[in-house]
Amino acid sequence: DAKTTQPPSMDCAEGRAANLPCNHSTISGNEYVYWYRQIHSQGPQYIIHGLKNNETNEMASLIITEDRKSSTLILPHATLRDTAVYYCIVRVEDTGGFKTIFGAGTRLFVKA
Amino acid sequence: DSGVTQTPKHLITATGQRVTLRCSPRSGDLSVYWYQQSLDQGLQFLIQYYNGEERAKGNILERFSAQQFPDLHSELNLSSLELGDSALYFCASSVVPDTNTGELFFGEGSRLTVL
Q1: Of A3, B29, B36, B38, which cross-links B93 as Cys (Cβ 3.0–4.6 Å)?
Q2: Is A61 helix (H, G, I), strand (E, B) or coil?
Q3: What would the pLDDT profile of B16-50 be if each residue is shown by its tens digit?
């Protein structure tokens, strides 16, 4: 099972910031938070990951709370092409190692 | 372009048949992962290989099998196909398999339709 919970859907106006929340209350101290997105039926695309410090790259920013129990992915200026399902993932450790388990994600609709 | 190549892109077959899906990972990546995504369903982890060895198993049916070859490409074999096997099958690769860090790079998927 996924170790994260996300709202099923969100709307955002084009040009505005999209803030996607994620709860991961059972995260361990050495576990990273990953974000991926899937546009329509394309292959999922890696966006960003972080441990405890806030991270930023050319696609997005990741804000992780001090207690690490939740995080927010920020798309600073959402465009119509950012409409996608966004997955917040904390890897699940198994006997064979870590597995990337996808939950239901958040379906983001960016509207003109 | 993620650098992960999957073939075929589309495949239509009949119930009871067997198909093979192929995946070429990014250059330098040693680990390959297979996921299944049925219509309106989430991504289900099937199986993972690292440098030719099975590393982790997920919700893979006994009718399905996979392997990773010495050149690191992987094949997912689906047999005795049922209507419910119709889905998108994604392959992903990464440099390292077991660590807590490192992103996965996904291919564009193979869409299987079972009639």
Answers
A1: B29
A2: strand
A3: 999 999 999 999 899 999 999 998 678 999 999 98
Say if the Cβ atoms of A99 and B92 lie within 8 Å: no
A94 chain-B contacts, CB cut-off 8 A: 56
Q: A41-71, pLDDT tens digit by residue? A: 899 999 999 998 899 999 999 999 999 999 9
Closest Cα in chain B, distance from residue A71 (Å):
17
With an 8 Å Cβ cutoff, are B108 and A43 in contact? Answer: yes
> Cβ–Cβ of B108/A34 closer than 8 Å?
no
**pLDDT at A33 (0 to 100):** 92
pLDDT value, residue A88: 95
A23-31: list long-range contacts, CB under 8 Å, 24+ apart: A23/A69, A23/A70, A24/A68, A24/A69, A24/A70, A24/A71, A24/A88, A24/A90, A25/A69, A25/A70, A27/A3, A27/A68, A27/A69, A27/A90, A29/A68, A30/B100, A31/A90, A31/A91, A31/B100
Residues of B whose CB is below 8 A from A105: 42
What is the pLDDT averaged over residues A23-38?
91
B90: nearest CB among A31, A43, A97:
A43
